[in-house]
């Protein structure tokens, strides 16, 4: 799989999906529910009902790629409380999600901006 940094956007479909769906079914969800094009340079991330499996769909300019991860004992920390069905992640949050962190609770230090007076 290509690095997440190679993609312009990472979109999480917040609601669980039926994991019998493969490339065609997931690309329909991207178009009809997420209202996005599955053909742009984005990653689309889906979770199953038990939150122990995820699928990542992306277009690589020659065809669709489907990446699948199954946890043997743990569950993914999936954002439950959110205003939107589609959540956009940054590359760091995607890495945290795959490593088991709860991305909805991790908040970085606030950015500070100063101007020097001459």
Please describe the topology of this protein.
Layout: E1 9-13, H1 23-32, E2 42-47, E3 53-59, E4 64-70, E5 86-89, H2 91-99
Parallel strand pairs: 1-2
Antiparallel strand pairs: 1-5, 2-3, 3-4
- Find the structural class using helix and strand composition: alpha+beta
**Spans with pLDDT under 50 lasting ≥5 residues?**
none
Strand content: 15-25%
Order of strands, widest sheet: 4-3-2-1-5
The tally of structural domains comes to 1
Order of helices and strands: EHEEEEH
Sum up the overall morphology in one term: globular
| Tally of helical segments | 2
Number of strands: 5
Helical content stands at 10-25%
The averaged pLDDT comes out at 86
Rg on CA atoms, Å:
16 Å
Largest sheet: 5 strands, mixed
Report how far the terminal alpha carbons are from each other. Answer: 50 Å
Defining key terms:
about 120 residues; alpha+beta; five-stranded mixed beta sheet
Structure description:
The chain is of the alpha+beta class and 118 residues long. It has one domain (4-99). It has two helices and five strands. The protein has helices spanning 23-32, 91-99; strands spanning 9-13, 42-47, 53-59, 64-70, 86-89. Strands 4-3-2-1-5 form a five-stranded mixed sheet. The longest helix is centred in the N-terminal third of the chain and has 10 residues, at 23-32. The protein starts with 8 loop residues before the first strand and ends in a 19-residue tail after the last helix. The model has no long low-confidence stretch (mean pLDDT 86).
């Amino acid at each position: 799989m290509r690095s997440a940094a190679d993609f312009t956007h990472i979109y999480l479909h917040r609601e669980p999906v039926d994991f019998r769906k493969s490339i065609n079914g997931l690309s329909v969800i991207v178009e009809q529910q997420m209202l996005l094009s599955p053909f742009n340079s984005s990653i689309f991330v889906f979770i199953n009902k038990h939150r122990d499996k995820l699928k990542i769909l992306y277009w690589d300019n020659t065809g669709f790629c489907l990446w699948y991860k199954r946890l043997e004992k743990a569950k993914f920390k999936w954002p439950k409380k959110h205003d939107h069905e589609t959540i956009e992640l940054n590359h760091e949050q995607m890495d945290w999600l795959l490593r088991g962190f709860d991305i909805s609770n991790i908040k970085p230090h606030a950015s500070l901006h100063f101007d020097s007076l001459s």
